[in-house]
Amino acid sequence: MTGFLPRLTIPAFLLCVTAALLPARAQTTLKPAIVVAGSPELIRVSGHYLHVEGSWLGRKILFFPARDGSAWYALAGVDVQAPAGPSTLTITATTGSTVGELPRDLSLHVPIRPAHYRTAALTVAPGFVEPDPAQQAEIALAVKAKEAAFAQGSAKPLWAGTFTPPVPSQPTDSFGTRRTLNGKLSTIHKGMDFRAPVGTPVTAGNSGRVLLAQKLYYEGNCVILDHGQGLMTIHMHLSRIDVHPGDTVTQGQQLGLSGATGRVTGPHLHWAVRWQAAMLDPAKLLALNLSHLP
Ligand SMILES: [Zn+2]
């Protein structure tokens, strides 16, 4: 004899009502979820909207729609020198469904947590620290060339899918390191160094357009790629440059060969990631899964 087992069944109409009564799911998400100074962030706003716009830490965020229209995305980030503390990621969205529609506020409070970067002391010849007038003129020209390049970015995403490393060698844990030169705090290392013997092919980490391809004082032979919507990658100290400003490049395309040009202590590739003047951790960008985007 079998015991009486009550069967738990929920009528379908009740399920529908339950779903409709649930509070709206989190509309806006960030990846990585823990935000530190130097983090690139993939922002996702779920929902069918006609337009989404935002700003964060004084920078405008440009969103693009997902292919199926069910969400909007943006790549953004927090500068390596940003102080830890609260921040507001301001986002508004419109559906375009009614005339005179008020934008919906999807803003988020985003705490920026302290990052733990290393400190390194370097000792160099005095001339290395204090450039002479001729060197200062060269540095000023380089600054102008970079500013002109940075001003030319595309408003649309030029990247597609997850970023790949620019050389096949292992990256070093060098981003964000506070460097002292001859005992004085000199710089914060705003890129990632890859060990690469002179002549190693350097490739584009993603598709984009060449904004700058020339020799600069500190950077040596330098290639700046625009990936759109404020995101750029910078390749320094090359021994040879194989691209020209205005060239369109695909992911994995050779940009040149690694070297030891500019102000370096030895051959390596310095790879930097810039989003609207914020310098981001290349390791975190490489770790971000963008495979289904844009
Ligand atoms: Zn470096």
Explain the overall architecture.
This protein has 294 residues and is mostly beta strands. The chain folds into two domains: 24-113, Immunoglobulins (Immunoglobulin-like, Sandwich), CATH 2.60.40; 132-176 and 189-287, Glucose Permease (Domain IIA). Helices cover 13% and strands 38% of the residues. The protein contains four helices and 23 strands. Strands 14, 16, 17, 18, 20, 22 and 23 form a seven-stranded antiparallel sheet that branches. The longest helix is centred in the middle third of the chain and has 18 residues, at 133-150. The protein is globular and about 65 Å long. The model is unreliable at 1-25 (pLDDT under 50). Bound molecules: zinc ion. The site of zinc ion has 4 residues, from loops.
List keywords for this structure.
single chain, 294 residues, mainly beta, Immunoglobulin-like, Glucose Permease (Domain IIA), 2 domains, 7-stranded antiparallel β-sheet, 6-stranded mixed β-sheet, 4 helices, 23 strands, 38% strand, globular, disordered N terminus, binds zinc ion
Topology:
Blueprint: H1 12-21, E1 28-31, E2 35-36, E3 40-46, E4 51-56, E5 59-62, E6 64-65, E7 71-77, E8 85-94, E9 104-105, E10 108-113, E11 119-122, H2 126-129, H3 133-150, E12 178-181, E13 184-188, E14 192-194, E15 201-203, E16 208-216, E17 220-228, E18 231-238, E19 240-241, E20 248-249, E21 254-257, E22 269-275, E23 278-280, H4 282-287
Parallel strand pairs: 2-10, 11-12
Antiparallel strand pairs: 1-3, 3-7, 4-5, 4-8, 6-7, 8-9, 8-10, 12-13, 14-22, 15-21, 16-17, 16-20, 17-18, 18-22, 19-21, 22-23
This protein binds zinc ion.
Zinc ion binds at residues 189, 191, 193, 270.
